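Q: what sequence does this backbone want?
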């Protein structure tokens, strides 16, 4: 039997307009399909302040819509020190942001786990590639990678909920 405690997950990338909000949106859809939205809260942010207050990159929005994901609005924000205390799990999308999160939130109670932990078996990538300077196919590849990672991610979410 699962406990009633709600867990909070924060996805992190550099500017919070491409990868981390895409991970948030794909994860939210996965949780909805699994009936876990009352038990798990997801959010996203960036380590840099480049795009604070901006909406999702239009190319990522197009890729998400093309893949069938709903977009409920998003305004980029920067990682805050208190995120390390308010979230149970923080999921950086790449190695640079993993290093930055560990530095910025040194000593926090949250578990910091790179997104690549849940990549499909056989995937030769070790981080979610940044599509910002790429084309539409790069954005679609990121959405697909995140979607392909969600079954393994959901296994861990269920385990976290039962702890």
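A:
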């Amino acid at each position: 039997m699962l406990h009633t405690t709600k867990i909070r997950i924060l996805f992190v990338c550099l500017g919070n307009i491409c990868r981390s909000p895409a991970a948030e949106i794909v994860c939210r859809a996965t949780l909805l399909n699994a009936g876990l939205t009352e038990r798990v809260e997801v959010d996203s942010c960036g380590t840099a302040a480049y795009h604070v207050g901006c909406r999702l990159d239009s190319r990522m929005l197009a890729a998400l819509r093309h893949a069938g994901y709903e977009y409920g609005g998003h305004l980029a924000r920067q990682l805050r020190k208190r995120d390390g205390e308010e979230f149970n799990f923080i999921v950086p999308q790449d190695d640079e942001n993993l290093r930055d999160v560990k530095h910025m939130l040194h000593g926090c109670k949250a578990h910091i786990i790179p997104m690549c932990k849940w990549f499909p078996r056989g995937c030769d990538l070790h981080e979610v590639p940044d599509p910002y300077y790429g084309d539409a196919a790069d954005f679609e590849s990121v959405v697909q990678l995140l979607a392909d990672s969600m079954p393994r991610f959901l296994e861990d979410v269920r385990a976290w909920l039962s702890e």
